[in-house]
Amino acid sequence: MSEWESIPTDLPAGVMQLANQVAGHTSAQGCLGLLKTTRDGTILKPTGKVLCGIREIAFYERLQHVRNRNDDEPEDLWTVLCQVVPRYFGHPKLPIDGKEIEFIQLEDLTEGHEWPCIMDVKIGRRTWDPLATPEKRKAEENKYKACRQRFGLCIPGFQLYSVRDGGKLIRHGKDYGKKLTEDNIRDAFLLYLNATEDGGVSRTLLEQFLHDLHLIRDWARKQTMFRLYSSSVLLVYDAARLRDEPAENRSSPQRASLTNSNGTLPTAKARMIDFAHAFPTEACEADTVDENYLQGIDSLVDIFEQFL
Fold this sequence. Notes:
By secondary structure, the chain is α+β, with helices and mostly antiparallel strands. The protein has helices at 50-68, 77-82, 134-141, 145-151, 174-178, 185-192, 203-222, 240-243, 291-306; strands at residues 15-17, 35-37, 43-46, 93-96, 99-106, 116-123, 153-162, 168-172, 226-228, 231-238, 269-273, 278-280. It is built from nine helices and twelve strands. The chain is globular, with a radius of gyration of 19 Å. Belongs to the inositol phosphokinase (IPK) family. Its EC number is 2.7.-.-.
């Protein structure tokens, strides 16, 4: 077991385990998992294996360089990417159980949410990178096979606060995700989106998600620099904003709305995460798009558009 894959018994002051992590290496699985700072509420993600950490930090550093520029071109692909990737605050090292562990510090996308609903959607039919061993490749090929082969995506985990059940927390992990197929994957999304009993989903919620998902899809249709393996899209919204919604606004899919009695609108977000397996495009595939990633994001957009 590696140093970042053990449950910490002595976290430094000002740091605690993240309570709403829905996928990846978690404390519930006996791993370090994501941490949250109490000072500014940012998220600390362990970098993991050395090469994975180097690749992911380099990706975020490149994005940060673009964010700091003063001459951004609207059509620049890195500038577009900045809109759909969590903000990055460096890679601090902290002492954990007597060992120095490096982290990637990111914004908490659920900050200010009373009932944070979070879904991790892993993108791509192929999730192993070019350096994967035959054993790793075989193990990855057998995970979430039905959904990955059909849609180029899978759902490792999600949580929601059920509005119809008075805010009851519902959590599903990888065991649930592995049972999903072409026949029932849409039910998982409807559950996450707090659909009504007749299948009605807030149109505003869908439109907000699709705004971000279209940006990601358009980026994936153009970018030829990288191949993204085992990367995810994180979906986030606050179900508490649905709680005071007028009943007539959720009576049918066409009339559903996220506007509550105070007239305020929540902000649903879709963000690209997990770049530990982001590899430069090989010379033999130069100037070609990442079809593996594109299939998954196309499928995700199609599913959400079907709910409109």
